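Re: your question about YchF/TatD family DNA exonuclease

S., sorry for the slow reply, the queue was backed up all week. Below is exactly what I fed in.
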Amino acid sequence: MKLADTHCHIDSDRYDEDRENILKEIEGNLEFAVNIGYDLDSSKRSIELADRHDFMYAVVGVHPTDIKGYNDELEDQLEELAGHPKVVAIGEIGLDYHWMKDEKEEQKTVFRRQLELAKRVNKPVVIHTRDATHDTLEILKEYPEIKGIVHCYPGSYESAVEIMDNYYFGVGGVITFKNARKLVEAVSKIPLDRLVIETDSPYLTPTPFRGKRNHPIYVEHIARKIAEIKEISYEEVVRVTTENAKKIYGI
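Result:
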């Protein structure tokens, strides 16, 4: 079994010059990768990638910093896209109080609307939360029937426990940064069977490539860091986190 990248953005224009090479490397090195939408256009591009490549899957949704203009018509289009057989979740959705473009209440309203959408189409969700952990968790608790992944998990172990029955926690390149003490502590305590690995490519590149464009095959560096933190074998991290990814995404 190989690693999976549960969260990447290969449709980004930062891959325009060598996207096909990147995709070949994903095919050769990973079990699969999941391309994540952040608005309607990127959701459509994610599906196009998944349509063309067996090893790619898609997630469709509107990111909290892209919700301006979110309305019934847009939501109907998302719901239609969600019916595609390679769409495995609704996302990335959530709250972002760091790059806040819309008021908190507006973000919460659209977040709840997309959670309702996930409920209607019976899909898990991929959650984005930045500087908004408390509010994000409180809203997720309103929907006990929904499961998903908290992308680039920013919180503590204690916060994770509050939603651990329904959610997996995405670990990316940040775990390799020197200032990631809080995340290292959380990952040391969160059970391996609740972790998934992601790159968020082209962003959040792990050490030793920090400062350069990220690549889905860099999941290896994240997995090796998790193995070091948990004092277990790299092979066990590969096996368990890939099984977790398959389970939550229904792959």
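The chain has one domain: 4-249. The radius of gyration is 17 Å.

Happy to talk it through on Thursday.
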